[in-house]
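quick q for whoever's on today - can somebody do inverse folding on this one?? i tried earlier but teh output was garbage lol. C-alpha coordinates:
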Protein backbone atom coordinates (compact mmCIF):
# COMPACT_ATOMS: atom_id res chain seq x y z
CA UNK A 1 0.00 0.00 0.00
CA UNK A 2 1.43 3.36 -0.99
CA UNK A 3 0.27 6.47 0.84
CA UNK A 4 0.51 10.05 -0.37
CA UNK A 5 2.85 12.46 1.40
CA UNK A 6 -0.17 14.16 3.00
CA UNK A 7 -1.50 10.80 4.21
CA UNK A 8 1.90 9.83 5.64
CA UNK A 9 1.99 13.12 7.55
CA UNK A 10 -1.57 12.45 8.76
CA UNK A 11 -0.50 9.00 10.01
CA UNK A 12 2.55 10.39 11.80
CA UNK A 13 0.57 13.28 13.30
CA UNK A 14 -1.68 10.70 14.97
CA UNK A 15 1.32 9.01 16.55
CA UNK A 16 1.04 6.02 14.19
CA UNK A 17 3.45 4.60 11.62
CA UNK A 18 2.91 3.42 8.05
CA UNK A 19 3.84 -0.08 9.17
CA UNK A 20 1.12 -0.15 11.85
CA UNK A 21 -1.54 1.07 9.43
CA UNK A 22 -0.46 -1.50 6.83
CA UNK A 23 -0.69 -4.24 9.49
CA UNK A 24 -4.24 -3.13 10.25
CA UNK A 25 -5.13 -3.37 6.56
CA UNK A 26 -3.62 -6.87 6.44
CA UNK A 27 -5.87 -7.90 9.34
CA UNK A 28 -8.91 -6.95 7.26
CA UNK A 29 -7.59 -9.03 4.37
CA UNK A 30 -6.63 -12.11 6.37
CA UNK A 31 -9.47 -11.92 8.88
CA UNK A 32 -9.33 -12.79 12.57
CA UNK A 33 -9.82 -16.26 14.07
CA UNK A 34 -12.74 -17.11 16.32
CA UNK A 35 -11.99 -17.88 19.96
CA UNK A 36 -11.69 -21.63 20.58
CA UNK A 37 -13.78 -22.38 23.66
CA UNK A 38 -12.69 -25.43 25.65
CA UNK A 39 -15.52 -25.22 28.21
CA UNK A 40 -17.62 -22.73 30.15
CA UNK A 41 -16.25 -21.69 33.52
CA UNK A 42 -18.49 -22.61 36.45
CA UNK A 43 -18.51 -22.89 40.23
CA UNK A 44 -15.36 -24.77 41.31
CA UNK A 45 -14.40 -24.91 37.63
CA UNK A 46 -12.71 -21.53 37.39
CA UNK A 47 -15.24 -19.53 39.45
CA UNK A 48 -14.94 -19.28 43.23
CA UNK A 49 -18.05 -19.13 45.41
CA UNK A 50 -17.20 -18.00 48.94
CA UNK A 51 -18.83 -18.82 52.26
CA UNK A 52 -19.87 -16.02 54.62
CA UNK A 53 -16.72 -16.70 56.68
CA UNK A 54 -14.50 -16.43 53.59
CA UNK A 55 -16.23 -13.22 52.51
CA UNK A 56 -15.65 -11.72 55.97
CA UNK A 57 -11.99 -12.74 55.81
CA UNK A 58 -11.36 -10.98 52.48
CA UNK A 59 -13.47 -8.00 53.54
CA UNK A 60 -11.34 -7.54 56.65
CA UNK A 61 -8.11 -8.11 54.72
CA UNK A 62 -8.96 -5.18 52.46
CA UNK A 63 -10.12 -2.94 55.30
CA UNK A 64 -6.84 -3.44 57.17
CA UNK A 65 -4.63 -2.85 54.12
CA UNK A 66 -6.40 -0.13 52.17
CA UNK A 67 -5.17 2.92 54.11
CA UNK A 68 -1.61 2.06 53.01
CA UNK A 69 -2.54 1.88 49.32
CA UNK A 70 -2.95 4.16 46.33
CA UNK A 71 -6.41 3.21 45.04
CA UNK A 72 -8.31 4.50 42.02
CA UNK A 73 -11.65 3.76 40.41
CA UNK A 74 -11.47 3.67 36.61
CA UNK A 75 -14.80 4.40 34.90
CA UNK A 76 -15.19 4.14 31.09
CA UNK A 77 -17.69 6.96 30.44
CA UNK A 78 -17.14 8.16 26.89
CA UNK A 79 -20.34 6.72 25.43
CA UNK A 80 -23.30 8.86 24.38
CA UNK A 81 -26.75 7.69 25.42
CA UNK A 82 -27.98 7.10 21.84
CA UNK A 83 -28.54 3.34 22.24
CA UNK A 84 -30.55 3.91 25.41
CA UNK A 85 -33.23 5.58 23.34
CA UNK A 86 -32.98 3.49 20.16
CA UNK A 87 -36.60 2.31 20.20
CA UNK A 88 -37.82 5.89 20.78
CA UNK A 89 -35.80 7.22 17.84
CA UNK A 90 -37.28 4.43 15.70
CA UNK A 91 -40.78 5.31 16.87
CA UNK A 92 -40.39 8.99 15.95
CA UNK A 93 -39.13 7.99 12.51
CA UNK A 94 -41.75 5.32 11.75
CA UNK A 95 -44.97 6.51 13.41
CA UNK A 96 -47.58 8.20 11.23
CA UNK A 97 -50.54 9.59 13.16
CA UNK A 98 -52.83 9.34 10.13
CA UNK A 99 -52.33 5.58 10.12
CA UNK A 100 -53.68 5.07 13.63
CA UNK A 101 -53.11 5.65 17.34
CA UNK A 102 -49.88 4.98 19.24
CA UNK A 103 -51.60 2.01 20.84
CA UNK A 104 -52.36 0.49 17.43
CA UNK A 105 -48.73 1.15 16.41
CA UNK A 106 -47.58 -0.76 19.51
CA UNK A 107 -49.87 -3.70 18.74
CA UNK A 108 -49.02 -3.79 15.05
CA UNK A 109 -45.26 -3.61 15.59
CA UNK A 110 -45.16 -5.60 18.85
CA UNK A 111 -43.38 -2.56 20.31
CA UNK A 112 -43.18 -3.86 23.88
CA UNK A 113 -40.38 -1.44 24.79
CA UNK A 114 -42.53 1.52 23.79
CA UNK A 115 -45.47 0.11 25.75
CA UNK A 116 -43.36 -0.32 28.90
CA UNK A 117 -41.97 3.19 28.49
CA UNK A 118 -45.50 4.60 28.38
CA UNK A 119 -46.73 2.59 31.37
CA UNK A 120 -43.75 3.57 33.53
CA UNK A 121 -43.45 7.15 32.28
CA UNK A 122 -44.05 8.92 35.60
CA UNK A 123 -41.46 6.71 37.35
CA UNK A 124 -38.58 7.92 35.19
CA UNK A 125 -36.26 10.33 37.05
CA UNK A 126 -36.48 12.85 34.19
CA UNK A 127 -40.30 12.88 33.93
CA UNK A 128 -40.88 16.25 35.60
CA UNK A 129 -37.90 17.84 33.83
CA UNK A 130 -39.08 16.76 30.37
CA UNK A 131 -42.69 17.69 31.10
CA UNK A 132 -41.69 21.20 32.14
CA UNK A 133 -39.51 21.60 29.05
CA UNK A 134 -42.27 20.27 26.77
CA UNK A 135 -44.68 22.88 28.13
CA UNK A 136 -42.02 25.51 27.46
CA UNK A 137 -41.32 24.43 23.87
CA UNK A 138 -44.99 23.72 23.05
CA UNK A 139 -47.13 26.53 24.53
CA UNK A 140 -50.40 24.66 23.89
CA UNK A 141 -49.03 21.37 25.26
CA UNK A 142 -51.83 20.97 27.84
CA UNK A 143 -54.46 21.21 25.09
CA UNK A 144 -52.97 18.41 22.96
CA UNK A 145 -54.45 14.94 22.68
CA UNK A 146 -52.86 12.10 24.65
CA UNK A 147 -50.94 10.82 21.60
CA UNK A 148 -49.79 14.31 20.64
CA UNK A 149 -48.51 14.87 24.18
CA UNK A 150 -46.59 11.58 24.05
CA UNK A 151 -44.91 12.55 20.78
CA UNK A 152 -43.94 16.01 22.02
CA UNK A 153 -42.67 14.52 25.27
CA UNK A 154 -40.34 12.16 23.38
CA UNK A 155 -39.25 14.92 20.99
CA UNK A 156 -38.42 17.14 23.96
CA UNK A 157 -36.22 14.39 25.38
CA UNK A 158 -34.39 13.58 22.19
CA UNK A 159 -34.37 16.50 19.76
CA UNK A 160 -31.06 18.28 19.38
CA UNK A 161 -32.70 21.70 19.80
CA UNK A 162 -34.38 20.63 23.05
CA UNK A 163 -32.91 18.42 25.83
CA UNK A 164 -30.90 16.28 23.38
CA UNK A 165 -30.71 13.30 25.78
CA UNK A 166 -29.97 10.90 22.92
CA UNK A 167 -26.61 12.52 22.19
CA UNK A 168 -25.65 13.51 25.72
CA UNK A 169 -23.04 11.59 27.75
CA UNK A 170 -24.78 8.71 29.49
CA UNK A 171 -23.02 9.62 32.73
CA UNK A 172 -24.73 13.01 32.91
CA UNK A 173 -28.32 11.92 32.30
CA UNK A 174 -30.84 11.89 35.17
CA UNK A 175 -30.60 8.33 36.52
CA UNK A 176 -32.20 8.31 39.96
CA UNK A 177 -34.90 10.40 41.63
CA UNK A 178 -34.62 11.10 45.34
CA UNK A 179 -36.96 13.15 47.53
CA UNK A 180 -34.93 16.33 47.20
CA UNK A 181 -32.88 15.94 44.02
CA UNK A 182 -32.13 14.04 40.79
CA UNK A 183 -28.85 12.10 40.63
CA UNK A 184 -26.77 11.37 37.54
CA UNK A 185 -24.72 8.18 37.10
CA UNK A 186 -21.62 10.37 37.54
CA UNK A 187 -22.85 11.46 40.98
CA UNK A 188 -23.73 7.90 42.04
CA UNK A 189 -20.18 6.77 41.21
CA UNK A 190 -18.89 9.33 43.72
CA UNK A 191 -21.17 8.15 46.51
CA UNK A 192 -20.28 4.54 45.79
CA UNK A 193 -16.54 5.24 45.61
CA UNK A 194 -16.62 6.80 49.08
CA UNK A 195 -17.60 3.38 50.43
CA UNK A 196 -14.70 1.32 49.05
CA UNK A 197 -12.19 3.47 47.13
CA UNK A 198 -11.55 6.11 49.80
CA UNK A 199 -8.17 5.81 51.49
CA UNK A 200 -7.25 8.24 54.27
CA UNK A 201 -10.42 10.18 53.54
CA UNK A 202 -9.68 10.68 49.82
CA UNK A 203 -11.37 8.88 46.91
CA UNK A 204 -9.71 8.98 43.50
CA UNK A 205 -11.96 8.44 40.48
CA UNK A 206 -10.88 8.58 36.86
CA UNK A 207 -13.40 8.92 34.04
CA UNK A 208 -12.56 8.30 30.39
CA UNK A 209 -14.77 10.70 28.44
CA UNK A 210 -15.12 12.38 25.07
CA UNK A 211 -13.03 15.53 25.18
CA UNK A 212 -15.91 17.72 23.94
CA UNK A 213 -17.77 16.99 27.19
CA UNK A 214 -14.94 17.82 29.61
CA UNK A 215 -16.43 21.21 30.46
CA UNK A 216 -19.86 19.68 31.14
CA UNK A 217 -18.41 17.04 33.49
CA UNK A 218 -16.42 19.73 35.28
CA UNK A 219 -19.59 21.76 35.82
CA UNK A 220 -21.45 18.72 37.14
CA UNK A 221 -18.67 18.03 39.65
CA UNK A 222 -18.68 21.68 40.76
CA UNK A 223 -22.45 21.47 41.24
CA UNK A 224 -22.40 18.38 43.46
CA UNK A 225 -18.92 18.42 45.06
CA UNK A 226 -19.74 20.17 48.33
CA UNK A 227 -22.89 18.12 48.91
CA UNK A 228 -21.30 14.74 48.17
CA UNK A 229 -18.14 15.50 50.16
CA UNK A 230 -20.17 16.63 53.15
CA UNK A 231 -22.52 13.62 53.06
CA UNK A 232 -19.70 11.08 52.65
CA UNK A 233 -17.05 12.84 54.74
CA UNK A 234 -14.72 12.18 51.80
CA UNK A 235 -12.61 14.38 49.53
CA UNK A 236 -12.72 13.49 45.85
CA UNK A 237 -9.88 13.68 43.36
CA UNK A 238 -11.59 13.52 39.97
CA UNK A 239 -9.53 13.14 36.81
CA UNK A 240 -10.39 12.66 33.15
CA UNK A 241 -8.73 11.29 30.05
CA UNK A 242 -9.74 10.79 26.44
CA UNK A 243 -9.35 7.98 23.97
CA UNK A 244 -6.00 8.67 22.31
CA UNK A 245 -5.70 9.28 18.58
CA UNK A 246 -2.83 6.82 18.45
CA UNK A 247 -5.33 4.04 19.24
CA UNK A 248 -7.61 4.87 16.30
CA UNK A 249 -7.68 2.35 13.47
CA UNK A 250 -7.97 2.67 9.71
CA UNK A 251 -11.36 1.86 8.13
CA UNK A 252 -11.58 0.01 4.80
CA UNK A 253 -14.20 -0.55 2.13
CA UNK A 254 -15.57 -3.97 1.22
CA UNK A 255 -12.54 -4.52 -1.05
CA UNK A 256 -10.26 -4.00 1.98
CA UNK A 257 -8.97 -0.71 0.57
CA UNK A 258 -8.50 2.25 2.93
CA UNK A 259 -11.50 4.57 3.12
CA UNK A 260 -10.63 8.02 1.81
CA UNK A 261 -12.38 11.21 2.89
CA UNK A 262 -13.47 13.82 0.34
CA UNK A 263 -10.34 15.87 1.08
CA UNK A 264 -8.09 12.90 0.27
CA UNK A 265 -7.25 12.07 3.89
CA UNK A 266 -7.47 8.59 5.37
CA UNK A 267 -10.56 7.74 7.42
CA UNK A 268 -9.67 6.60 10.95
CA UNK A 269 -12.17 5.49 13.60
CA UNK A 270 -12.06 5.04 17.39
CA UNK A 271 -11.16 1.43 18.10
CA UNK A 272 -13.60 0.44 20.87
CA UNK A 273 -13.06 0.14 24.62
CA UNK A 274 -9.85 -1.83 24.04
CA UNK A 275 -8.27 1.55 23.24
CA UNK A 276 -8.67 2.44 26.92
CA UNK A 277 -5.87 0.04 27.86
CA UNK A 278 -3.56 2.90 26.92
CA UNK A 279 -5.35 5.13 29.46
CA UNK A 280 -5.20 2.42 32.13
CA UNK A 281 -1.52 1.94 31.36
CA UNK A 282 -0.85 5.52 32.49
CA UNK A 283 -1.73 4.71 36.12
CA UNK A 284 0.74 4.10 38.95
CA UNK A 285 -1.88 2.93 41.49
CA UNK A 286 -1.65 -0.14 43.71
CA UNK A 287 -5.26 -1.13 43.01
CA UNK A 288 -7.58 -0.13 40.18
CA UNK A 289 -11.31 -0.82 40.34
CA UNK A 290 -12.95 -0.94 36.89
CA UNK A 291 -16.67 -0.35 36.49
CA UNK A 292 -18.83 0.99 33.65
CA UNK A 293 -20.53 4.38 33.97
CA UNK A 294 -24.08 3.00 33.69
CA UNK A 295 -23.69 0.27 36.35
CA UNK A 296 -24.90 2.12 39.45
CA UNK A 297 -27.69 1.72 42.00
CA UNK A 298 -29.84 3.95 44.17
CA UNK A 299 -28.46 4.69 47.61
CA UNK A 300 -30.17 1.89 49.55
CA UNK A 301 -28.28 -0.79 47.58
CA UNK A 302 -24.85 0.87 47.61
CA UNK A 303 -23.55 -0.77 50.81
CA UNK A 304 -24.26 -4.24 49.44
CA UNK A 305 -22.51 -3.41 46.17
CA UNK A 306 -19.53 -1.90 48.03
CA UNK A 307 -19.23 -4.96 50.27
CA UNK A 308 -18.62 -7.23 47.31
CA UNK A 309 -16.15 -4.81 45.76
CA UNK A 310 -14.15 -4.96 48.99
CA UNK A 311 -14.28 -8.76 48.99
CA UNK A 312 -12.84 -8.87 45.48
CA UNK A 313 -10.14 -6.38 46.49
CA UNK A 314 -9.26 -8.36 49.62
CA UNK A 315 -8.86 -11.51 47.55
CA UNK A 316 -6.65 -9.62 45.10
CA UNK A 317 -4.41 -8.26 47.85
CA UNK A 318 -4.00 -11.57 49.66
CA UNK A 319 -3.27 -13.43 46.42
CA UNK A 320 -0.88 -10.72 45.28
CA UNK A 321 0.97 -10.72 48.61
CA UNK A 322 1.54 -14.46 48.34
CA UNK A 323 2.57 -14.20 44.68
CA UNK A 324 5.07 -11.46 45.55
CA UNK A 325 6.60 -13.59 48.33
CA UNK A 326 7.05 -16.47 45.90
CA UNK A 327 8.55 -14.20 43.23
CA UNK A 328 11.08 -12.78 45.69
CA UNK A 329 12.01 -16.32 46.73
CA UNK A 330 12.38 -17.42 43.10
CA UNK A 331 14.73 -14.51 42.44
CA UNK A 332 16.95 -14.88 45.49
CA UNK A 333 17.03 -18.50 46.47
CA UNK A 334 17.80 -21.93 45.02
CA UNK A 335 14.48 -23.52 45.89
CA UNK A 336 13.97 -27.23 46.48
CA UNK A 337 11.75 -29.37 44.28
CA UNK A 338 9.15 -29.43 47.06
CA UNK A 339 9.10 -25.62 47.28
CA UNK A 340 8.77 -25.28 43.52
CA UNK A 341 5.85 -27.71 43.52
CA UNK A 342 4.21 -25.60 46.25
CA UNK A 343 4.42 -22.54 43.98
CA UNK A 344 3.01 -24.55 41.07
CA UNK A 345 0.11 -25.65 43.30
CA UNK A 346 -0.56 -22.00 44.23
CA UNK A 347 -0.68 -21.02 40.55
CA UNK A 348 -3.08 -23.85 39.79
CA UNK A 349 -5.44 -23.52 42.77
CA UNK A 350 -5.44 -19.75 43.38
CA UNK A 351 -4.74 -18.28 39.94
CA UNK A 352 -6.35 -20.94 37.73
CA UNK A 353 -3.12 -21.38 35.76
CA UNK A 354 -2.92 -24.68 33.86
CA UNK A 355 0.58 -26.00 34.56
CA UNK A 356 2.33 -27.93 31.79
CA UNK A 357 2.08 -31.72 32.14
CA UNK A 358 5.82 -31.79 31.49
CA UNK A 359 6.57 -29.48 34.42
CA UNK A 360 7.95 -32.13 36.77
CA UNK A 361 10.31 -33.33 34.03
CA UNK A 362 11.92 -29.90 33.70
CA UNK A 363 15.26 -29.14 35.34
CA UNK A 364 14.98 -27.17 38.59
CA UNK A 365 16.45 -24.14 36.86
CA UNK A 366 13.85 -24.24 34.09
CA UNK A 367 11.04 -24.91 36.60
CA UNK A 368 12.11 -21.71 38.35
CA UNK A 369 12.00 -19.67 35.15
CA UNK A 370 8.71 -21.24 34.14
CA UNK A 371 7.06 -20.39 37.47
CA UNK A 372 8.50 -16.88 37.50
CA UNK A 373 7.08 -16.22 34.04
CA UNK A 374 3.63 -17.46 35.05
CA UNK A 375 3.61 -15.50 38.32
CA UNK A 376 5.11 -12.19 37.21
CA UNK A 377 1.99 -10.75 35.56
CA UNK A 378 -0.74 -8.26 36.42
CA UNK A 379 -3.65 -9.82 38.28
CA UNK A 380 -7.36 -9.20 37.76
CA UNK A 381 -10.13 -10.40 40.06
CA UNK A 382 -13.45 -10.34 38.24
CA UNK A 383 -16.92 -10.61 39.69
CA UNK A 384 -19.26 -12.91 37.73
CA UNK A 385 -23.05 -13.04 38.06
CA UNK A 386 -25.37 -15.93 37.29
CA UNK A 387 -26.52 -15.88 33.69
CA UNK A 388 -29.88 -14.13 33.41
CA UNK A 389 -29.97 -14.05 29.62
CA UNK A 390 -28.25 -10.67 29.30
CA UNK A 391 -26.39 -10.10 26.01
CA UNK A 392 -22.62 -9.85 26.17
CA UNK A 393 -19.58 -11.72 27.42
CA UNK A 394 -18.92 -14.42 29.93
CA UNK A 395 -16.20 -16.51 31.63
CA UNK A 396 -14.78 -19.42 29.65
CA UNK A 397 -11.81 -21.74 29.48
CA UNK A 398 -10.16 -20.98 26.14
CA UNK A 399 -7.63 -23.01 24.11
CA UNK A 400 -5.05 -21.10 22.08
CA UNK A 401 -3.11 -22.14 18.97
CA UNK A 402 -0.52 -24.01 21.04
CA UNK A 403 -3.31 -25.89 22.91
CA UNK A 404 -2.62 -23.96 26.12
CA UNK A 405 -5.80 -23.43 28.15
CA UNK A 406 -6.54 -20.28 30.15
CA UNK A 407 -9.44 -18.46 31.79
CA UNK A 408 -10.80 -15.61 29.67
CA UNK A 409 -13.72 -13.22 29.41
CA UNK A 410 -15.16 -13.82 25.94
CA UNK A 411 -17.72 -11.80 23.98
CA UNK A 412 -20.37 -13.75 22.08
CA UNK A 413 -19.20 -12.05 18.85
CA UNK A 414 -15.85 -13.84 19.24
CA UNK A 415 -17.49 -17.27 19.07
CA UNK A 416 -18.22 -19.24 15.89
CA UNK A 417 -21.94 -19.89 16.35
CA UNK A 418 -22.02 -22.02 13.18
CA UNK A 419 -19.88 -24.54 15.04
CA UNK A 420 -22.33 -26.73 17.00
CA UNK A 421 -19.82 -27.64 19.69
CA UNK A 422 -18.82 -24.02 20.29
CA UNK A 423 -22.45 -22.92 20.26
CA UNK A 424 -23.32 -25.62 22.79
CA UNK A 425 -20.60 -24.42 25.19
CA UNK A 426 -21.88 -20.86 24.86
CA UNK A 427 -25.50 -21.94 25.40
CA UNK A 428 -24.67 -23.87 28.57
CA UNK A 429 -22.66 -21.09 30.21
CA UNK A 430 -23.86 -20.46 33.76
CA UNK A 431 -22.31 -17.02 34.36
CA UNK A 432 -22.10 -13.61 32.78
CA UNK A 433 -19.49 -10.83 32.84
CA UNK A 434 -20.85 -7.66 34.52
CA UNK A 435 -17.54 -5.73 34.09
CA UNK A 436 -16.74 -5.77 37.79
CA UNK A 437 -12.95 -5.86 38.03
CA UNK A 438 -10.26 -5.16 40.59
CA UNK A 439 -6.79 -4.97 39.08
CA UNK A 440 -3.27 -5.24 40.47
CA UNK A 441 -0.98 -3.53 37.95
CA UNK A 442 2.31 -3.47 39.90
CA UNK A 443 4.96 -6.17 40.14
CA UNK A 444 6.70 -7.52 43.23
CA UNK A 445 9.31 -4.74 43.04
CA UNK A 446 6.61 -2.05 43.15
CA UNK A 447 7.06 -1.20 39.47
CA UNK A 448 4.05 -0.71 37.20
CA UNK A 449 3.67 -3.29 34.45
CA UNK A 450 3.64 -2.25 30.80
CA UNK A 451 0.12 -3.56 30.17
CA UNK A 452 0.58 -3.50 26.40
CA UNK A 453 2.84 -6.57 26.75
CA UNK A 454 -0.01 -8.77 27.98
CA UNK A 455 -2.45 -8.27 25.06
CA UNK A 456 -3.57 -11.00 22.66
CA UNK A 457 -3.68 -9.04 19.40
CA UNK A 458 -5.56 -11.84 17.63
CA UNK A 459 -8.67 -11.11 19.70
CA UNK A 460 -9.43 -7.87 17.89
CA UNK A 461 -12.84 -7.42 16.22
CA UNK A 462 -13.83 -6.57 12.66
CA UNK A 463 -17.25 -4.91 12.56
CA UNK A 464 -19.47 -3.56 9.79
CA UNK A 465 -20.30 0.15 9.84
CA UNK A 466 -21.61 2.73 7.38
CA UNK A 467 -20.06 5.95 6.08
CA UNK A 468 -22.12 8.31 3.90
CA UNK A 469 -24.55 5.47 3.27
CA UNK A 470 -21.89 2.96 2.17
CA UNK A 471 -20.85 -0.16 4.08
CA UNK A 472 -17.33 -0.13 5.48
CA UNK A 473 -15.27 -2.36 7.77
CA UNK A 474 -13.95 -1.10 11.11
CA UNK A 475 -11.30 -2.63 13.35
CA UNK A 476 -11.75 -2.67 17.12
CA UNK A 477 -8.78 -3.42 19.35
CA UNK A 478 -8.97 -6.39 21.76
CA UNK A 479 -11.57 -5.47 24.39
CA UNK A 480 -10.29 -3.88 27.59
CA UNK A 481 -11.41 -6.80 29.77
CA UNK A 482 -11.21 -9.38 26.94
CA UNK A 483 -8.12 -9.74 24.75
CA UNK A 484 -6.37 -6.71 26.24
CA UNK A 485 -6.09 -8.65 29.52
CA UNK A 486 -5.72 -12.10 27.94
CA UNK A 487 -2.29 -12.74 29.45
CA UNK A 488 -3.03 -11.42 32.94
CA UNK A 489 -3.48 -13.84 35.80
CA UNK A 490 -7.23 -14.18 36.27
CA UNK A 491 -9.52 -15.00 39.17
CA UNK A 492 -13.30 -15.23 38.77
CA UNK A 493 -15.64 -14.92 41.77
CA UNK A 494 -19.42 -15.29 41.85
CA UNK A 495 -21.09 -12.07 43.02
CA UNK A 496 -24.81 -11.40 43.56
CA UNK A 497 -26.99 -9.97 40.82
CA UNK A 498 -27.48 -6.74 42.82
CA UNK A 499 -23.95 -5.74 41.71
CA UNK A 500 -24.99 -5.72 38.04
CA UNK A 501 -27.38 -2.91 37.10
CA UNK A 502 -26.47 -1.53 33.66
CA UNK A 503 -28.73 0.91 31.87
CA UNK A 504 -28.55 -0.31 28.28
CA UNK A 505 -32.06 0.87 27.45
CA UNK A 506 -33.96 3.71 29.12
CA UNK A 507 -36.49 1.18 30.45
CA UNK A 508 -33.77 -0.33 32.65
CA UNK A 509 -34.25 2.74 34.86
CA UNK A 510 -37.59 1.21 35.89
CA UNK A 511 -35.87 -1.76 37.56
CA UNK A 512 -35.88 -1.99 41.36
CA UNK A 513 -32.20 -1.08 41.81
CA UNK A 514 -32.83 2.25 40.05
CA UNK A 515 -36.02 3.10 41.97
CA UNK A 516 -36.45 4.25 45.57
CA UNK A 517 -39.58 2.17 46.03
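ok took a stab at it. sequence:
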Amino acid sequence: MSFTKAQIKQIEDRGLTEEKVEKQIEIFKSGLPFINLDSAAGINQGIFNFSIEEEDHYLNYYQVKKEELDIVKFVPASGAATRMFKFLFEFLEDYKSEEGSINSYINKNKATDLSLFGVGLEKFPFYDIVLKEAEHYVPNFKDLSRDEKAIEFIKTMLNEDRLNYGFSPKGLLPFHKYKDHIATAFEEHLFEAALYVASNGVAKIHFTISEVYKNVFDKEFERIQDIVERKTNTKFQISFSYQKQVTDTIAVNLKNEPCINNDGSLYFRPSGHGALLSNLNDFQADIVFVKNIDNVVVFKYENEVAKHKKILAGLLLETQDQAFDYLKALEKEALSEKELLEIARFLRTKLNVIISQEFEKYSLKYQREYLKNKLNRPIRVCGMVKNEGEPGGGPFWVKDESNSISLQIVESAQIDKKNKHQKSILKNATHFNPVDLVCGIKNYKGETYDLSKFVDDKTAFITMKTKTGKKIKALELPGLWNGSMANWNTIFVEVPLVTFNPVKTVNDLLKATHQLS
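fwiw The longest helix spans residues 302-332. also The chain has a mean pLDDT of 96. so keep that in mind when u check it
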